[in-house]
Amino acid sequence: MMYALVDCNNFFVSCERVFQPWLEGRAVVVLSNNDGCVVARSNEAKALGIKMGTPFFRIRKLTENGGVEVRSSNYRLYGDMSERVMRILRGTGLEVEVYSIDEAFMLLGGMNPEQYMPLCRGTVARIRQWTGIPVSIGVAPTRTLAKMASHFAKRYPAYRGVCAIDDGTKRSKALSLTEISEVWGVGRRGAPKLESAGIRTAADLAARPEEWVHRNMGIGGVRTWRELHGIPSIDRDIEERRQSICTSRSFAGLIEDKEELAARVSDFAAACARKLRKENSVAAKVAVFLDTNRFREDLPQYSPALETELDPPASSTQEIVKAALGIFGRIYRPGFGYKRAGVTVSGTGSADIVQMPLFGEEDMKMRERTEALSGLMDRINAGEENLLRLGIQHPGHYADGIRREHCSRLYSTDWNELMEIK
DNA sequence: TCTGGGGTCCTAGGACCC
DNA sequence: TCTGGGGTCCTAGGACCC
C-alpha cells in the first residue's frame, strides 16, 4: 500500500491570492481571529523571518511600511476553497481521507510508480488550473513518510510538486535530511528531549532500538518509529462522527458583566447544537469553560470548567443552551475580566438511535416539538446565519465583536461580494 | 493597548470492585 | 512492625496536530 499526502501550499495565503492576484510574489500573512497572531505566511513572509504564531502587534511595523500585506482570516472563503480541492481529489476515484482544511491522504493501493507519478502530477496540475491553489504531494508506504515527502516536494522546485519516498535508498536519505523536530508526531516540545539523548535527525531516531523508543517516548513514539521504518502503524479507521464538538472564541476586550458573558456562552452553545444537527448527532455531555487573560499577570486569574450530562442525549438549541447556562451560573464569578469562553459537547451518537425509555408520552411530545423547532431554525438560518435565535442569545452573530480589520471579501460564495470586486 | 480555534490521543492517578 | 493485586472506569491535564 502507498499513501499520497496532498498538502496545499501556504493555504490561507493562496486562497487570498486567487482573488487578489497582485499579492502574488509579495510577503503576505493571514491572522487568526481577533487579528491576534500569524497563522499563515507566504514564502516571502517566511523569508523575512516571520514565525508561525507571532502576535500581530510584534510585526505591525512591517505591515505599515508596506513591506508585508496582511489579511484577517476569512474562514468561509477558505472552507469553500477547501471543498473544491477535496472534490477534485475524490474525482480521481481513489479513497480520500480529509485530514485538515488543507491536507488529505489519497490511498494509492498497490499502484506502481508508473501509475502513481502521472496521477499525482496530473492532480497537482488540475487543482492549480481549476481552483488556483498550488499543492504539493508526498508519496510513501506510510503516512508519516508521505508527510515527510511532501515537505521535500514543497521545498525543492525540482520535484515539480511531487516527491516519492518509495525505496530504501530514498528513505535513508530523507530520514537523514529531516530534523527530528520536523517529524510528524514528535513536535517542537518533544524534540529537545530527544536532542539531549543525541537524536538530531529522523535517521538517528530510526536507528535506536524499538525497546529504547518505547521506554522513552511511550506507545505513540513506537508508532512513529515503525512508520519511519516503512511499517504502517497509524490506524485511521476514521469515525464519521466527531467525538466532541467545541465552539469557543477570544473576545476583543475583557468581559466582566454576567449577562453579557451569558449571552456569549448561549451563542457558543447554539453553535454547537447547530453543528451537532448538521451531522445528525446528539450529545450526552455539555461542558462550559471560561478563561481570564493569562498574559495579564497583573490581573487575577480564573479558568473554571464544568461538565453536565444530558439524559437523554440531545441536539436542540433550547436544550443545549439551557444546559450550558446552568453550568455557567455555577462557575461564573464576578470580579474577573474574562478573555475567552467556550462550549464543548461530547459523548456524541446518532440522532436516530436515541433511547428514551424513561420518558413518558408528554415528554416525548415536548421533545418532538423542540426538535421540530430546531430544524425550522436551521432552515431559516441557512439563508442568513443566526437570523433566528433564542432570546438569551447575543443580538447578532457570535463572531461579531471580533476584530477583523483586514478581511477580504466572500469572493467564492457570495455573488454580491463578487460583483463588488474592482 | 494588542497573544487563535478546534480537534485527537495518551497518561497518571483516584475510585471502586473482587 | 507486617496492610494484596489486579482489573476497570473515569477524569484532568498534557502533548500533538493543523
Protein described:
With 422 residues, the chain is α+β, with helices and mostly antiparallel strands. The protein contains 14 helices and 12 strands. It has a 5-stranded mixed β-sheet with strand order 5-6-1-7-8. The chain has a 4-stranded antiparallel β-sheet with strand order 9-12-10-11. Strands 3-2-4 form a 3-stranded mixed β-sheet, sandwiched between helices. Helix 4 (75-90) packs antiparallel against helix 5 (113-131) and helix 11 runs antiparallel to helix 12 (317-331). The chain is globular, with a radius of gyration of 24 Å. The mean pLDDT is 90. The structure holds a DNA duplex (18 and 18 nucleotides).
Question: How is the largest sheet built, in terms of strand order?
Answer: 5-6-1-7-8
- The total strand number stands at 12
Spell the H/E element sequence: EHEEHHEHEEHEHEHHHHEHEEHEHH
Number of helices: 14
Strand residues, percent: 15-25%
How is the topology of this model organized?
Elements: E1 3-8, H1 11-19, E2 27-31, E3 38-41, H2 43-47, H3 56-64, E4 68-72, H4 75-90, E5 95-100, E6 103-107, H5 113-131, E7 135-140, H6 143-155, E8 162-164, H7 168-177, H8 187-196, H9 202-207, H10 210-228, E9 244-255, H11 258-278, E10 281-292, E11 305-314, H12 317-331, E12 338-350, H13 361-383, H14 415-419
The structure holds a DNA duplex (18 and 18 nucleotides).
